[in-house]
């Protein structure tokens, strides 16, 4: 049977690029990087609490790991799903390391913290408050909230990315929304 649909999907193109990259084709991997970098950056930026410098570092680390582990991509899911899971794991691993380090450091005096004042737009302040509320969430709740409400993944996809059950994803989303609401109302 001949298919008249000759439209290639992003998924088809990713599969071709992955096959080429596996054989050592660096330009193919660079194409994968260009195709996915913005979504991965947004994901790690939110997972690390909105720190631009750290998000850049995590973005680069995620793609270095993806290059190193490309042979472990079996194609059971889309490349983008695999890359998101790998990137989330990079962010989680970095967070665990930072938490361990922070336990050994002295906290800064509150007066040393820089605060933004002046003629900032109310919308910017509200967005900052929302991002801070998201950053304060427990890790699993923040992960599900970012993946579901911001990145647009469904609970089954989140389960595949994070390794948690679909029901846990739903419960974490409910918990995250409640905690953000409480934080913003406080």
Give me some keywords for this one.
186 residues; mainly alpha; Rna Polymerase Sigma Factor, Chain: A; Arc Repressor Mutant, subunit A; 2 domains
Category by helix and strand content: mainly alpha
* Series of H and E elements: HHHHHHHH
> Mean pLDDT across all residues, rounded?
82
Helix content estimate: 55-70%
Number of helices: 8
Please mark out the parts with pLDDT under 50 across 5 or more consecutive residues, or reply none.
Answer: 1-6, 108-120
Descriptive overview:
The chain has 186 residues and is an all-alpha fold. The chain has helices at residues 10-22, 26-47, 52-68, 79-102, 122-135, 139-150, 155-162, 166-185. The protein contains eight helices and no strands. The protein is globular. The model is unreliable at 1-6 and 108-120 (pLDDT under 50). Helices cover 70% and strands 0% of the residues. The longest helix has 24 residues, at 79-102. The chain folds into two domains: 9-103, Rna Polymerase Sigma Factor, Chain: A (Orthogonal Bundle), CATH 1.10.1740; 121-186, Arc Repressor Mutant, subunit A (Orthogonal Bundle).
Task: Describe the SSE topology.
Layout: H1 10-22, H2 26-47, H3 52-68, H4 79-102, H5 122-135, H6 139-150, H7 155-162, H8 166-185
Helix pairs in contact: 1-2, 2-3, 2-4, 3-4, 4-7, 5-8, 6-8, 7-8
